[in-house]
Amino acid sequence: MRSYAEYLQCTNCHKEYDYINPYRTCQECGKVLYVKYDMEKAKKNFDRNSLIGRVSSMWRYYEMMPIKDESNIVSLGEGMTPLLKANNLGKVLNCSDIYIKDEGCNPTGSFKARGLSAAVSRAKELGVKKLTMPSAGNAGGALSLYCARGNLEANVFMPKDAPIANKRESSDAGAKLTLINGLISDAGKISREQALEKGLFDVSTLQEPYRAEGKKTMGYEIAEQLHWDTPDVIIYPTGGGTGLIGIWKAFQEMQELGWIDKPKTRMIAVQSEGCAPIVKAYQSGALNAEMWSDAKTFAAGIRVPSAIGDYLILEAIRESSGTALTVTDVEMVECISMMASHEGIYPAPEGAATLAALKSLLAANKVYPEEKIVLMNTGNAYKYLDMWD
Fold first, then answer.
1. 20 to 30 A Cα–Cα from 212, which one of 92, 135, 204, 367?
2. Where are the beta strands (DSSP E) in the chain?
3. pLDDT tens across 362-381, in order?
4. What whole-number distance in Å separates Cα of residue 135 and Cα of residue 109?
């Protein structure tokens, strides 16, 4: 197998960069870089039927992944998580076609495993030895464990009130864990300072091109699991937004490869009413989101006051004719129980937010009962038990 990764390109000014050096963001405008592939060769040589019999992980899509040498892959078996038909919830909500993509089944217990597997693998390939990131919890734990697997150094900066499980996960894996008084934005500032001072490679959300490549595999899997169809609706809990824009990137790539028809999916972002910069920007028609002051929600993964990829999130929502909405923490707690008691899936608060959002969207006639709907449960509840007890 060969990866068709060819170069990096800025998502804003479109400046191109070679695929040899460890670039992080655009050196001209500071915006997000994407990995770009030789789509002509990929379309000619990478047929979706070639997936038959391959490894049941996200690396089954190797040709459209950013690692050039397979020996550099750092994997714990992430990906190919279940896409479960939610018949019991469907009866309650009078919907015929609800699915839950259960990312809590990943190694490390969340979808963050995908992005960190890709980022740590590429860092290893580029000769990077020391990585850093701020984290609300799950990403820091995943970075720590994948760095342990790949024999790299992890430096994690995390709010003191992050879930206990995430803090233990990082420290037990041997990461250099620093706890911060404040939010992830405060942790990010210190992480960036340390990166400059100590020469660490910053793998913060969308501050490098490779985590999005791991997370886009959720989109490839959804299409494959739906027999190369795309759903009418995907509801995604949105903090930094890499998962949402990654899925949208995957759909565009698969269309170009000829694997799927033009995606009909409406991408819907859900945030907590206590931290909703993307929702506010979407509703006001803005192209970028303003920093959210005094962010408050127990759903740590979506307590993100500012996202570098805000313009990409808003672009994906609007290009897909989607929308953005908020839910309350109380609704999330209720929907954790509802999803667990009806479907046997114990979701993270962020995953439960998608069910709360669906209920609101159905009531507002913005999603219809006959549509094919995918709820993205981005993690499992076990890591959060101390947060709402």
1. 367
2. 5-10, 16-17, 33-37, 83-85, 98-102, 130-134, 153-159, 176-180, 201-202, 233-237, 266-272, 323-327, 373-377
3. 999 999 999 999 999 999 99
4. 15
Is residue 42 within 8 Å of residue 52, measured between CB atoms? no
Q: Which two tokens stand for residue 133?
A: 């990131």
Burial environment of residue 285 by CB neighbours within 10 A (0 to 12, 13 to 18, 19 or more): exposed
Given the candidates 3.40.50.1100, 3.50.50.60, 1.20.58.1610, 3.40.190.10, the CATH classification of the domain at 83-110+211-388 is: 3.40.50.1100
The Cα–Cα gap between 314 and 203 comes to: 22
pTM to 2 decimal places? 0.96
Q: Which amino acid is at 102?
A: D
77 burial type by CB count under 10 A (0-12 exposed, 13-18 middle, 19+ buried):
middle
Q: How far apart are CA 174 and CA 170, in angstroms?
A: 7
CA distance 47 to 72: 24
**% of the chain beyond a pLDDT of 70:** 99
CA torsion 212→159→197→201, rounded to 10°? -20
Q: How deeply is 23 buried, as exposed, middle or buried, from its count of CB atoms within 10 A (0-12, 13-18, 19+)?
A: middle
